[in-house]
């Protein structure tokens, strides 16, 4: 049975909730997310699926053609793959949302000396993108991997109440030859999933919006 590499990286120091802070109740209505556009060398249209958890606490992205590779059988353009998703989240009235944390999962097969990279950022339409957060892998490695990024409660960016703004996600995978022999080995990093077991999970942080003034 494969072990899972887990690396927890906390953005903006550590995950801390202010004293007395109480999260708002979760929206009762079912959350629906539409894929407005999908672009990138790692995700042709139709190769990324979105699913919202039944309790409205998170949504997942599952890819079916997202692999970066180098070495035997790989083309020069295969060493870097990226995906840009533009999503419209149908938010229930009286609520807005931000992203409290993200779990990235995948698989890598890296020869001794080879390297792998996963990095991502996201932002609301009209806002500045968050800084890219990168995670590195080093060969020899052949296993599942998982990286978790969490955001401090006070640093979560929320969609402005009452405004329609799409949510943009940028991800990237890279495979590097390093000191390995590309004529004898193939190394790759992937977020592909044929059975839905490999997916990226974005955790919602919900907030109540003030009622409109009459």
TrEMBL record:
Pfam family, one: DUF4360
Keywords: Signal
Domain of life per record: Bacteria
InterPro entries in UniProt: DUF4360
Signal peptide location: 1-19
UniProt name for this protein: Secreted protein
Organism: Amycolatopsis oliviviridis
């Amino acid at each position: 049975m494969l072990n899972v590499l887990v690396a927890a990286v906390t953005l903006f120091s550590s995950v801390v909730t202010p004293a007395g802070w109480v999260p708002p109740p979760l929206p009762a209505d079912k959350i629906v997310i539409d894929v407005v556009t999908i672009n990138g060398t790692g995700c042709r249209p139709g190769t990324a699926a979105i699913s919202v958890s039944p309790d409205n606490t998170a949504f997942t992205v599952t890819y079916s053609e997202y692999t970066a590779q180098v070495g035997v059988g790989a083309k020069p353009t295969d060493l870097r793959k990226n995906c840009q998703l533009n999503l419209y989240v149908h938010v229930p009235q009286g609520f807005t949302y931000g992203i409290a944390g993200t779990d990235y999962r995948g698989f890598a097969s890296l020869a001794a000396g080879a390297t792998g990279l996963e990095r991502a950022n996201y932002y609301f339409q009209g806002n500045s993108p968050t800084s890219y957060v990168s995670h590195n892998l080093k060969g020899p490695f052949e296993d599942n991997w998982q990286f978790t990024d969490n955001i401090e409660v006070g640093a979560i960016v929320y969609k402005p109440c009452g405004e329609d703004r799409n949510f943009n996600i940028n991800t990237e995978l890279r495979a590097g030859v390093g000191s390995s022999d590309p004529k004898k080995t193939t190394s790759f990093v992937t977020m592909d999933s044929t059975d839905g077991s490999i997916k990226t999970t974005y955790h919602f942080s919900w907030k109540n919006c003030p009622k409109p003034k009459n």
